[in-house]
Amino acid sequence: MTRLIDGKKISASEVEQLAVDTRQFIAESSVTPGLAVVLVGDDPASQVYVRNKVKQATAAGFNSTEHRLPEETGQAQLNALVEQLNSDPSVHGILVQLPLPAQLSEPEIIRLIAPEKDVDGFHPQNVGALAAGNAELIPCTPMGCMIMLRQTLGDLSGKHAVVVGRSNIVGKPMAALLLQANCTVTIVHSRSQDIEAICRQADILVAAVGRPEMIRGSWVKPGATVIDVGINAVESGGRRRLVGDVAFNEVSEVAGAITPVPGGVGPMTIACLMKNTLTAARQQISV
Ligand SMILES: Nc1nc(=O)c2c([nH]1)NC[C@@H]1CN(c3ccc(C(=O)N[C@@H](CCC(=O)O)C(=O)O)cc3)C=[N+]21
């Protein structure tokens, strides 16, 4: 029998612990952690994320503000908002929802966010720190995946981890964290040869490609731990539902443990955003 890794449950207990830590932080510092989320336009995935995030921020005991800008916002206007948030002492964490509309530069905005407020961990300074193994602010989705892996497997040393996908927001930081945890790490991507055979070698398989149900049962080593990062909206029988990058029914016949979609990586991502916000607040008041 495969074991279900319940991201909803694990994230709830993470946020519960965080609320305790936050109360203590506020009592000691008289500072309430503040998170600012910037949403440009109306990307549906980002809207879901914002809704869940506001709920969790409140549960954690933070102040949270939402800044909605119209689809046609220009770079100067977005830059001005980020600069205002950078210099606002009540804001400890800034998240600009990606993807941005085409007229806006993501690298420019990521570089502009003050690194100590970069709760996504996307700023080049934080990316560099992660590569060097001494990051404070770690990208939320990979951090959430590591918490689930540690809870499922304990020590990850020596395990072969295969990461499918090489994005800056998931694949690359995920590989860095697995390496830091002493895994043997392979990254496969769209140009890789014989992806299936490489996936079949994995003790830990992390799917982060954004292709509905790409990973099939035959790609998975019996007993492997499978983390499904994909959140894909598909139409079937006239209704919309969410599926992962993993063909859940097939793979759960083979895997030792697997994350569901929804209720897996998604809620953990949000819990880790909250963890990063408290970390960021701690760093900023101690200076
Ligand atoms: N700067 C930035 N950082 C992000 O981390 C970021 C972003 N931009 N833009 C949008 C994507 C998307 N994302 C999600 C996180 C959690 C769920 C989540 O909790 N999903 C629920 C399902 C929700 C539902 O039922 O629709 C689940 O998987 O159980 C979804 C999507 C973070 N993103």
Automatic annotation (TrEMBL):
EC number(s) reported in the record: 1.5.1.5, 3.5.4.9
PROSITE patterns assigned to the protein according to its UniProt record, in alphabetical order: THF_DHG_CYH_2
Pathway(s) where this gene product acts: One-carbon metabolism; tetrahydrofolate interconversion
CDD domains: NAD_bind_m-THF_DH_Cyclohyd
InterPro entries in the record: Aminoacid_DH-like_N_sf, NAD(P)-bd_dom_sf, THF_DH/CycHdrlase, THF_DH/CycHdrlase_cat_dom, THF_DH/CycHdrlase_CS, THF_DH/CycHdrlase_NAD-bd_dom
Tetrahydrofolate dehydrogenase/cyclohydrolase catalytic domain ranges (all copies): 5-120
Single Gene Ontology MF annotation: methenyltetrahydrofolate cyclohydrolase activity
Parts of the chain that traverse the membrane: none
Keywords: Amino-acid biosynthesis, Histidine biosynthesis, Hydrolase, Methionine biosynthesis, Multifunctional enzyme, NADP, One-carbon metabolism, Oxidoreductase, Purine biosynthesis
Positions that bind NADP(+): 165-167, 231
Catalytic activities: (6R)-5,10-methylene-5,6,7,8-tetrahydrofolate + NADP(+) = (6R)-5,10-methenyltetrahydrofolate + NADPH; (6R)-5,10-methenyltetrahydrofolate + H2O = (6R)-10-formyltetrahydrofolate + H(+)
Superkingdom of this protein's organism: Bacteria
Family the UniProt entry places it in: Belongs to the tetrahydrofolate dehydrogenase/cyclohydrolase family.
Protein's job: Catalyzes the oxidation of 5,10-methylenetetrahydrofolate to 5,10-methenyltetrahydrofolate and then the hydrolysis of 5,10-methenyltetrahydrofolate to 10-formyltetrahydrofolate.
NCBIfam families: PRK10792.1 (NF008058), PRK14186.1 (NF010783), PRK14188.1 (NF010785)
Annotated protein name in UniProt: Bifunctional protein FolD
Natural source organism: Amphritea atlantica
Taxonomic lineage: Bacteria, Pseudomonadati, Pseudomonadota, Gammaproteobacteria, Oceanospirillales
